[in-house]
């Protein structure tokens, strides 16, 4: 099996976990399968860099001296808001030579500056998706997934999503058992699907300003298996269905139906991860009603069935 070289670019103002997260995944895979990865870091001038949290990282060398890697990883952080021109120019020349090109969080910004995301689907931290789309209209920005694969280019959302993406790459390279061993060691799931949303429903939606609507949001969360149709929710809020639907969307940013769908899906996921309840029981408790209805919801949103989700994402005992 050929050894894959992994190069992580480092620079002032990077988010430390964007580097250390993927490094721990690839290093864990190397321990599991010796000779699988050779990990290096490089800064624009070879000197130490200071992360956004104040940590100082000492790289292995400079970008100018770095060999073209198999997997090139560009982290995010405050230092990507106005990226170092030396980094952007180096990426412009060397990025296309990498077998795999990866960004974590706002590391997508220097990739886009270098023209490496033009015509591709990509994501970044939710707070910067609008900016990425505005500044780089040739990039097809998808704000929802935690990571996106488009050919040999992979981009991920904020911080911990870089760990999910790195685990996906290890599974691709070395197989499920190697990735599962690394995930168990790090006490994380193997693995959140790339098209899982960056937000929970409660985080994705704004909190309503008016108390009756805030109460409805809380009611939905606490009663996913209840009657959550617009008419029933409107009656609880003492509003007409039409007024309720319009006000809910105006104040939360999503329709009542979409909010209910997200809450029910998240409730089902938690039950699959945290309990041994049967699929039918989970479907009823989460408000989907039937296993088939829940299966359609999972396939539509997560790209996997409830049974497969449980198999992959329920933590195995650490031994």
Automatic annotation (TrEMBL):
Superkingdom per UniProt = Bacteria
| Keyword annotations of the record | Transcription, Transcription regulation
Q: Which SMART domains match?
A: HTH_ARAC
Q: One GO MF term, please?
A: sequence-specific DNA binding
Segments forming domain HTH araC/xylS-type: 214-312
Looking up PANTHER family in the UniProt record yields: ARAC-FAMILY TRANSCRIPTIONAL REGULATOR, HTH-TYPE TRANSCRIPTIONAL REGULATOR RV1931C
Q: What is this protein called?
A: GlxA family transcriptional regulator
Native organism: Streptomyces dangxiongensis
């Amino acid at each position: 099996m050929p050894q894959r070289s992994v190069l992580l670019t480092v620079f002032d103002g990077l988010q430390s976990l964007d580097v250390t997260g993927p490094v721990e995944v690839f290093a864990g895979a190397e321990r599991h399968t010796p000779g699988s990865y050779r990990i290096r870091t490089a800064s624009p001038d070879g000197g130490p860099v200071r992360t956004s949290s104040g940590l100082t990282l000492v790289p292995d060398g400079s970008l100018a001296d770095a060999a073209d890697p198999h997997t090139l990883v560009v982290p995010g952080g405050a230092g990507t808001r106005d990226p170092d021109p030396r980094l952007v120019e180096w990426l412009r020349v060397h990025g296309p030579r990498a077998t795999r090109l990866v960004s974590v969080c706002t590391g997508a910004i220097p990739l886009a500056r270098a023209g490496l995301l033009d015509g591709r689907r990509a994501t970044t931290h939710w707070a910067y998706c609008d900016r990425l789309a505005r500044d780089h209209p040739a990039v097809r920005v998808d704000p929802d997934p935690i990571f996106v694969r488009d050919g040999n280019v992979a981009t991920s959302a904020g911080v911990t999503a870089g760990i999910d993406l790195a685990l996906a790459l290890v599974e691709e390279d070395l197989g499920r058992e190697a990735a599962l061993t690394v995930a168990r060691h790090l006490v994380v799931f193997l693995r959140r699907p790339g098209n899982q949303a960056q937000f929970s429903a409660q985080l994705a939606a704004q909190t309503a300003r008016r108390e009756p609507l805030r109460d409805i949001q809380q009611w939905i969360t606490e009663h996913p298996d209840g009657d959550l149709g617009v008419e029933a929710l409107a009656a609880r809020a003492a509003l007409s269905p039409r007024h309720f639907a319009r006000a809910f969307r105006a104040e939360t940013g999503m329709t009542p139906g979409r909010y209910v769908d997200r809450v029910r899906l998240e409730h089902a996921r938690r039950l699959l991860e945290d309990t041994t309840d049967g699929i039918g029981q989970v479907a009823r408790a989460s408000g989907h009603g039937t296993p088939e209805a829940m299966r359609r919801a999972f396939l539509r949103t997560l790209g996997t069935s409830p049974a497969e989700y449980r198999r992959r994402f329920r933590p195995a005992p650490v031994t």
